[in-house]
Amino acid sequence: MNELQFVLPEEIEKQSFEIISEELKERNILLKKDQEMVIKRVIHTSADFEYADTMAFSEDAVNKAKELIRNGAHIVTDTNMALAGINKKILGGFGGEAHCFMAWERTAKLAKESNTTRAAVSMELAGEIGKPLIFAVGNAPTALVRLYEMIEAKVLIPEFIIGVPVGFVNVVAAKELIMRTKVPYIVNRGRKGGSNVAAAICNAILYELGR
Amino acid sequence: MNELQFVLPEEIEKQSFEIISEELKERNILLKKDQEMVIKRVIHTSADFEYADTMAFSEDAVNKAKELIRNGAHIVTDTNMALAGINKKILGGFGGEAHCFMAWERTAKLAKESNTTRAAVSMELAGEIGKPLIFAVGNAPTALVRLYEMIEAKVLIPEFIIGVPVGFVNVVAAKELIMRTKVPYIVNRGRKGGSNVAAAICNAILYELGR
After folding, report:
1. Residues A171, A189 contacting (CB under 8 angstroms)
2. Which residues form the Cobalamin biosynthesis precorrin-8X methylmutase CobH/CbiC domain (chains A, B) (predicted)?
3. Are B193 and B76 in contact (CB under 8 A)?
4. Known active-site residue B44
5. Residue A168's closest chain B neighbor by CA?
């Protein structure tokens, strides 16, 4: 529809999801019931139907993530953009908080000292939160690699990983690593993802809980 | 490349842009010199080469945007995610500031009173800043429509519009409206865009100035 239409503000999102549902049907894509709202919200945030083909979920992932949030899990992300996008009001209603350590001076200092990325250091610092953790990685594959190393070394076992960094260097491989662990995950295979996608996945889960 | 490689943190971005340049060449896409870094940074942030085909620039747009920032223009965006992503350090070095009025109580109140979106109201409130303004719209087509109406009514003439809302309702039409005005623009035609894309465009321009 290329003509401007009058749509009430509260109707815009509803109508958008109707168009997404319709076009998924035209493409003969049938989503699993429990994954549907997550994938549709990612398409809503990107206008990119490719996500319907590339998003990967571990067994019963969405319900596990809901259960974690219901029990007060915190969310740790690797970008301040995702932090800004995550619905902290609903999260807070269950006792959770969202964190991003990327802009901390301590993060920059530690990264420089160990010649690694601030994102990798951010993952280590998360251990200090002392709560069940959902990691939402929207930018840095190095964050996923560090999580994998920590899981393997049993230094930190995340309760859940949303692994959707975007990019061209090590992104594909880092996502595959995460899918090899026993940690429940939502990952977008391939190069695509981003802080907007990370926030959209968190919010899809939060909105279902917030109803 | 699907194998994990060791890449120094400072090399990741450089290597990413090399891959993007290479793949653009493979696709026989030749970008205009002045638009190149903007389009490449959008591809870097989205891993989506479609942007090379759909991004539209008014005459000499990138240089005009640079000149505005050099002279202390402020940036107004319709999402807190874009606000979080914009490099405010470089912007501030030229005297500029970045603003987002979406979360203001006053914005919500005014939107409710006039049955419009907070994004549309945000555009109106920008007039109070009293500085040359670059609008960076990454989410709401209603923001672009309101900008168009204000331009037509000569209520507010922005110095520059970055028009990259994403979505399914009125997004395509709202972008076309902006391209009909005399205001310099960078727009992504079609449904795609987003707060990440809006921030990437601002940053591409800021990074070139920051060198």
Report:
1. no
2. 11-207
3. no
4. yes
5. B16
